[in-house]
């Protein structure tokens, strides 16, 4: 029986998470997208703590324009929070989503904001 779209994403997510993990020096930027919103977190996997987070639901992020433009704004917001916390280098975790569209826009926004990955 064929896997559903969500089951495929979770299988890909498990495979990728076996290869990457975040630390306090090199945190993991985890991205989740729903149909309406997009969320990003900087995670230290060694201690199990979230160092910074940003989403399209926050007041600081402008929710004008298309979902792709909002994703780029979330990327810039997470980059600003990371720079304020003293983090420049990260590991990008696309969370099983295809690196295209909104996920790519968020990554590009984070790069524009000053993050290196």
UniProtKB/TrEMBL annotation:
One of its GO terms (biological process) is translation. It holds the Pfam family Ribosomal_L18p. InterPro entries: Ribosomal_L18 (IPR057268), Ribosomal_uL18_bac-type (IPR004389), Ribosomal_uL18_bac/plant/anim (IPR005484). It comes from the Bacteria. Keywords: Ribonucleoprotein, Ribosomal protein, RNA-binding, rRNA-binding. GO terms for cellular component: cytosolic large ribosomal subunit. SUPFAM superfamilies: Translational machinery components. One of its GO terms (molecular function) is 5S rRNA binding. Gene3D superfamilies: 3.30.420.100. Part of the 50S ribosomal subunit; part of the 5S rRNA/L5/L18/L25 subcomplex. Contacts the 5S and 23S rRNAs. HAMAP family: Ribosomal_uL18_B. Belongs to the universal ribosomal protein uL18 family. This is one of the proteins that bind and probably mediate the attachment of the 5S RNA into the large ribosomal subunit, where it forms part of the central protuberance. PANTHER family: 39S RIBOSOMAL PROTEIN L18, MITOCHONDRIAL, LARGE RIBOSOMAL SUBUNIT PROTEIN UL18M. This is Large ribosomal subunit protein uL18. The gene is rplR.
């Amino acid at each position: 029986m064929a896997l559903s779209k969500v089951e495929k994403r979770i299988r890909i997510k498990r495979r990728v998470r076996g290869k990457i993990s975040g630390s306090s020096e090199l945190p993991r930027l985890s991205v989740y997208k729903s149909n309406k919103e997009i969320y990003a977190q900087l995670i230290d996997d060694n201690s199990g703590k979230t160092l910074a987070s940003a989403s399209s639901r926050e007041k600081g992020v402008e929710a004008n324009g298309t979902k792709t433009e909002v994703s780029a704004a979330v990327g810039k917001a997470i980059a600003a929070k990371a720079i304020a916390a003293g983090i420049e280098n990260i590991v990008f975790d696309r969370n099983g989503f295809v690196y295209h569209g909104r996920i790519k826009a968020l990554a590009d926004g984070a790069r524009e904001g000053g993050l290196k990955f």
